[in-house]
Amino acid sequence: MQIATNLMIDALLECVRAAGAAITTIYAAAAEGVNCELGDKADGAGPLTLADIAAHRILCEGLHQINGAISVVSEEDYNTHTLRREDGQFWLIDPLDGTKEFNARTGEFTVNVALVENGYPTIGVVYAPVLKELFWNVPGKGAFKDDGHQVRRIHTADVPTNAVLRVVASRSHLDEATRAFITNLGAHSLIQAGSSLKFCRVAEGSADIYPRFGPTCEWDVAAAQAILEAAGGHVCTMDGLRLRHAKTSIINQAFIACSAALRDSDTSSISARLRAQDYSA
């Protein structure tokens, strides 16, 4: 595992904050009528904006300064996607996660940076610059949140037996399979959020479970997965396996992100619900 020194983490957070500052400058310009769209992304994942490119450049430069020996794989540079190796180490970044939220001006978009080692994320940083929420983890030391007023360690919530589950789901991608799963959970409250903030809501204990059946890419998930796992949570595929990265395909399987308490106390009933209906559509 990459040794995460205090200096390395500090440099990583500074780099992500700089990318977020560039995004907010362009976000403000868009509010004044400046056209920030450059067309569609090469992978067809949605619109490409000036903010995507600005954040990509800042992150790549900053990460190379932190450790030039580690490759950077970015959503915004298709040529880097082949650098993903299951037995290797690489930075995996989404310079602007939640372009729909950026364009809809909800503020619920993030900068995502993960260090992936041997197929799994070990360090993650998620920054929502408009909301001024910064999440990260330090291997062996836990997960943290800076809300602009204080820095605190965060943990997933305990879930009492028969509790009304707090389900967080996509604001922009709530498909029928996800709706069916949520309905089958029984008593619940629904929280809608954009980008990788859904994982962070589970990590900080303000939500209990995040089911995702629609398509996601590895860079959408890796950073927040590292944070959630460090906060005591889990991100598992429908067969119960820890979600893996650096796969042959950059597209993830359907997954469930939840607190450890929910997984440990309710595994049998959730598994039964999964078996009761095919949610893979």
UniProtKB/TrEMBL annotation:
Binding site for Mg(2+) 2: 94, 97, 220
Membrane topology of this protein: Peripheral membrane protein
GO biological process, one term: 3'-phosphoadenosine 5'-phosphosulfate metabolic process
Keywords, alphabetical: Cell inner membrane, Cell membrane, Hydrolase, Magnesium, Membrane, Metal-binding
Keyword Magnesium: yes
Residues the record lists as binding Mg(2+) 1: 75, 94, 96-97
Enzyme class: hydrolase
Cofactor(s) the record lists: Mg(2+)
InterPro entries xref list: CysQ, CysQ/Inositol_MonoPase, Inositol_monoP_metal-BS, Inositol_monophosphatase-like, Inositol_monophosphatase_CS
GO CC terms in record: plasma membrane
GO molecular function: 3'(2'),5'-bisphosphate nucleotidase activity; magnesium ion binding
Primary location recorded for the protein, binned into one broad class: membrane
Catalysed reactions, as listed in the record: adenosine 3',5'-bisphosphate + H2O = AMP + phosphate
Positions annotated to bind substrate: 75, 96-99, 220
Highest taxon of the lineage: Bacteria
One Pfam family recorded for the sequence: Inositol_P
Function: Converts adenosine-3',5'-bisphosphate (PAP) to AMP.
Record-stated family: Belongs to the inositol monophosphatase superfamily. CysQ family.
Protein name per its UniProtKB record: 3'(2'),5'-bisphosphate nucleotidase CysQ
